[in-house]
Automatic annotation (TrEMBL), chain A:
EC number(s) recorded for this UniProt protein: 2.1.1.33
Annotated stretches, region: Disordered: 1-24
GO terms under cellular component: nucleus; tRNA methyltransferase complex
Keywords: Methyltransferase, Nucleus, RNA-binding, S-adenosyl-L-methionine, Transferase, tRNA processing, tRNA-binding
Gene3D superfamilies xrefs: Vaccinia Virus protein VP39
Superkingdom of the source species: Eukaryota
Species this protein is from: Sesamum alatum
Name of the protein in question: tRNA (guanine-N(7)-)-methyltransferase
Catalyzed reaction equations: guanosine(46) in tRNA + S-adenosyl-L-methionine = N(7)-methylguanosine(46) in tRNA + S-adenosyl-L-homocysteine
Pathway recorded for this protein: tRNA modification; N(7)-methylguanine-tRNA biosynthesis
TrEMBL record, chain B:
Signal peptide range: none
Known pathway: tRNA modification; N(7)-methylguanine-tRNA biosynthesis
Gene3D superfamilies recorded: YVTN repeat-like/Quinoprotein amine dehydrogenase (2.130.10.10)
Family (UniProt): Belongs to the WD repeat TRM82 family.
Name this polypeptide is given: tRNA (guanine-N(7)-)-methyltransferase non-catalytic subunit
PROSITE patterns assigned to the protein according to its UniProt record, in alphabetical order: WD_REPEATS_2, WD_REPEATS_REGION
One GO-annotated biological process of the protein: tRNA (guanine-N7)-methylation
Keywords: Nucleus, Repeat, tRNA processing, WD repeat
Length: 259, 434
């Protein structure tokens, strides 16, 4: 934490060696990380005991000064280098949003990126933040029941081997937890360039009693849908290679289970 | 690296030690004790040890969970051999045996006796539709277990149905208690999470319900490795009170080494009216009784019931709702220093019942062996022998404590060791230092 702050100060003087001299943004080559991180291993970073102990004022100091009652509504799970968050930040300036990423160097990069953007665009990007965590284990530690209105799972690890399918971030049992933190009407966005994973994610969502697919018209009308393939670093890579993407966008519905 | 190898294999041996468990028939018709792979049942009605009938040959490895159904008609057992066995308590015949993919850590039977749930070491909960089994028709059940919910790769330590049958409650080593709606058709999965009860700062080791007349749904109490017992409104996830049992039991000594962890709560048992909760704590020779004040929604220490004469630290406790008697067992499987390997010692505490007066302490006493229902035949059957050397107690207490810690507490590696491991990674080897 301390290092982030000193970096932030340095950055204002445009002397930070890890930041670009012209844009003030952090440069990725200093934040290289392995492409994958094992979600099953024991975590050794601090996790809030419960959502009430997750201190948002550290994440959104400026934003919460004017309206301290606001809660996080969007979560980008496995946000990577944060491309989507940055686009969403200006598209929804009055919503709080957070990226969750397991790889600590990548998280550091996104942190720096947000600080740099806040510094060079005063008043903007105050509604976006990032946290290093294992979202597959700790989602309920960060969000209350029905707190979120949008969740994003963009280009997640495909985990091809069958024995590793339980490491996939979309799975029937994890969807129960996502349904818990999403309010009725909330939307879950998934996209991948791996057909096998696309089919898997769609079938998980299709088979879940608490989710229903958005209609073509609704997809067309939602400005966020377009960002899925264009805003993220992974999406841009796929576009450059003229690859195919597979999308599944579902809505959290109120319980229809007989009780 | 040699050292690390040694360390890890040593850990492995210790985690194999399983605590002895006790379960009491809801009408105290029988009492069951498991130690290692041994399942011992004593019928108080017949005054003799029950012969279990199981064509598949019983358990092959340490049993980790045993319990009776609410009606007492069924009994389940499961453990490290990845087997779940359902027994008819009339004939004590195994009517169902399921093979789990992973080791079984916890079990529960739905209130109506229709469904058996079990949790495996990877955090997946399975359900089996036992159907309306009755003793007249002891046909073996032939159904497959279906996964219904999961804690993401966290060991599930306890599994309970709420008293009203609406919820299934799971506790795990990641400090979580999850309350899930138990659906009408559980075979399709339990997808609707009611809430999470979050507040414990270490693994959650045990759960119990307390009910009272003006609050039919009852409240939940949980015990944890953080040495506290907490009181919850489990439908809302609201933490009502925290009782710091470790501190109150005087088990925290200032001369303890820094790395010494808090004594974990190992088991809980509530009287049927919920006014008293018995708590088993590591390092406490005896049990602690907590009182629950329903109107104030608080938990407070009533008294400590000490067991004199031997270092008796219960590993599991149980009681029949209709009988004011608390049963305790202390024991462990495969103690290396002990040739006879299995230790089980059964004790009982009388006066475990509703607190009639607010001001006076409940009249409790630890029963002498001769006063225990069933007497010596029961002790012979459940303990395997009548006299046990004092040394075995301290060995067992230490072994069970270490095993629990190794199983449930996350290993903390030093910063240097983590750095060393990182440097040894293949993708770093070729990188020149910056």
């Amino acid at each position: 934490m301390a290092s982030t702050e000193t970096n932030g100060e340095k950055m204002l003087e445009v002397s930070n060696p890890t930041h670009s001299k012209t844009t003030g943004l952090p440069r990725k080559r200093f934040y290289r990380a392995r492409a994958h991180s094992n979600p099953l291993s024991d975590s050794h970073f601090p996790v809030p005991i419960s959502p009430s102990q997750f201190d948002c004022t550290l994440q959104y100091p400026q934003f919460l000064k004017s309206d301290s009652s606001k809660k996080i509504e969007f979560a980008d799970i496995g946000c990577g280098f944060g491309g989507l968050l940055i686009s969403l930040s200006t598209l929804f300036p009055d919503k709080l949003m957070i990226g969750m990423e397991l790889r600590d160097k990548v998280t550091e990069y996104v942190k720096e990126r947000i600080l740099a953007l806040r510094a060079s665009n005063p008043g903007q990007y105050e509604n976006v933040s990032v946290v290093r965590t294992n979202s597959m284990k700790y989602i309920p530690n960060y969000f209350e029941k029905g707190q979120l209105t949008k969740m994003f799972f963009l280009f997640p690890d495909p985990h091809f081997k069958e024995k590793n399918h339980r490491r996939r971030v979309i799975s029937p049992h994890l969807l129960d937890e996502y349904a818990f933190v999403l309010r009725a009407g909330g939307i879950i966005y998934t996209i991948t360039d791996v057909e096998e994973l696309g089919v898997w994610m769609k079938s998980c969502l299709e088979g879940h009693p608490l989710f229903e697919a958005l209609s073509e018209d609704e997809l067309e009308a939602d400005p966020v849908v377009k960002l899925l393939s264009t805003a993220t670093e992974e999406g841009q890579k796929v576009e450059r290679n003229e690859g195919q993407t597979f999308r599944a966008v579902y809505r959290r519905i109120a319980s229809s289970l007989p009780r | 690296m040699e050292d690390n190898h040694m360390e890890e294999s040593e850990h492995k041996l210790e985690t194999e030690v399983a605590p002895a468990l006790i379960a009491v028939h809801p009408d105290q018709v029988s009492v069951s004790v498991s130690v290692g792979s041994d399942l011992r049942v004593f019928s108080l009605r017949d005054g003799s040890r029950v012969k279990l009938v199981d064509e598949t040959g019983g358990h092959k490895d340490s049993i980790r969970a045993i319990r009776y159904s609410r009606s007492g008609r069924l009994f389940v057992s499961g453990g490290d051999d990845k087997l779940v066995k359902v027994w008819d308590t009339n004939s004590w015949r195994c009517i169902y045996s399921a093979v789990s993919e992973k080791r079984v850590t916890s079990l529960a039977i739905s209130g109506d006796g229709m469904f058996v749930c079990f949790a495996d070491k990877f955090g997946v909960v399975y359900v089996v539709d036992i159907g309306d089994h009755n003793s007249e028709n002891p046909a073996p059940v032939n159904k497959k277990a279906v996964p219904i919910l999961s804690h993401y790769c966290s060991i599930i330590t306890r599994l309970e149905f709420s008293p009203d049958g609406k919820y299934i409650i799971t506790a795990d080593r990641d400090f979580k208690i999850r309350v899930t709606v138990f659906p009408k058709e559980p075979l399709n999965g339990a997808h609707e999470i009611q809430t999470f009860c979050l507040g414990h700062t270490e693994f959650v080791s045990c759960l119990a319900f307390i009910s009272c007349q003006d609050y039919a749904q009852g409240l939940l109490v949980s015990g944890s490795g953080d040495s506290t017992v907490r009181l919850w409104d489990y439908a809302s996830g609201c933490l009502l009170d925290t009782c710091d049992v470790g501190a109150k039991a005087g088990l925290l000594h200032s001369n303890q080494r820094q790395e010494e962890v808090l004594p974990a709560i190992t088991d809980l048992c509530a009287t049927s009216d919920g006014s008293l909760v018995a708590v088993a704590v590591q390092s406490l020779p005896g049990i602690m009784l907590l009182g629950c004040n329903f109107s104030a929604r608080t938990l407070s220490v009533v008294k400590v019931v000490s067991v004199k004469g031997e270092t008796f630290i219960p590993t599991s406790i149980g009681a029949a709702p209709s009988v004011p008697l608390l049963w305790l067992v202390m024991g462990a499987s495969s103690l290396q220093s002990n040739d006879s390997a299995l230790l089980a010692r059964v004790r009982a505490v009388s006066g475990f019942t509703a607190n009639t007066s607010e001001t006076t302490e409940p009249e409790t006493s630890v029963l002498e062996d001769t006063e225990i229902p069933g007497g010596e035949p029961l002790l012979q059957a459940l303990q395997g022998k009548l006299s046990i050397g004092e040394e075995a107690f301290s060995t067992a207490a230490e072994a069970v404590k270490t095993a629990m810690r190794n199983l449930l507490i996350k290993k903390q590696y030093s910063a240097e060791r983590r750095e060393l491991r990182k440097r040894g990674r293949n993708d770093k080897k070729n990188q020149s230092p910056a």
